[in-house]
Write the structure tokens for this entry.
Amino acid sequence: MAGSTPQAPLILASASPRRLELLQQIGFSPVVHPADVDETPWPSESPDAYVARIAQAKVSAVAALYPHAVVIGSDTTVVGPSGILGKPKDHAEARAMLQQLRGRHHQVLTAVCVAQGEHIEQKTVASQVLFRLLNDAEIDAYIASGEPMDKAGAYAIQGLGAVFVAHLEGSYSGVMGLPLCETAALLKPFGLHPLQASDLVS
């Protein structure tokens, strides 16, 4: 990264191309090492507790392999009227999720965790999203595109799903999977800065 010398390598504990692109957008070039963790919610677990636990579990799993590196991990979930909406298992579940969200507000929670050794920083960011009223033909066409199948809540705001979003209050990048303002703040205590004085053009 031009203008700075990171104190340690940055490892992204995620296979998400969106999270990699977002980190690259703010000047970082992390090594990608996806974490293999069970993302099943615990019984009666709140959405806030769930995303925080999974984000930290991803980081812990990868940090054990890189004791001197800075490891960043994140988890995103959509909270609908029925509770936590993860990635749909099949088309029927994707359809049920989108039917539940249409014409309604829902919450998107993204937890970010950064760790190096015993030093851990973590934050959860909440955004409110309003879907316009979708008809069944639109939902079926969207499912046929394949986009919903690996996305929490069965949609991607940065993709075709953007046409469903009537209003967003909060972090657009957070809904994508990594809230950049908060992520930059979490990385600073580890000596990783998106902008340095020498990067700025006067």
Notes: Helices lie at 17-25, 47-63, 91-101, 136-145, 172-176, 180-187. The beta strands are 10-12, 31-32, 70-80, 83-85, 105-116, 119-131, 165-169. Residues 88 and 175 are 17 Å apart (CA to CA).
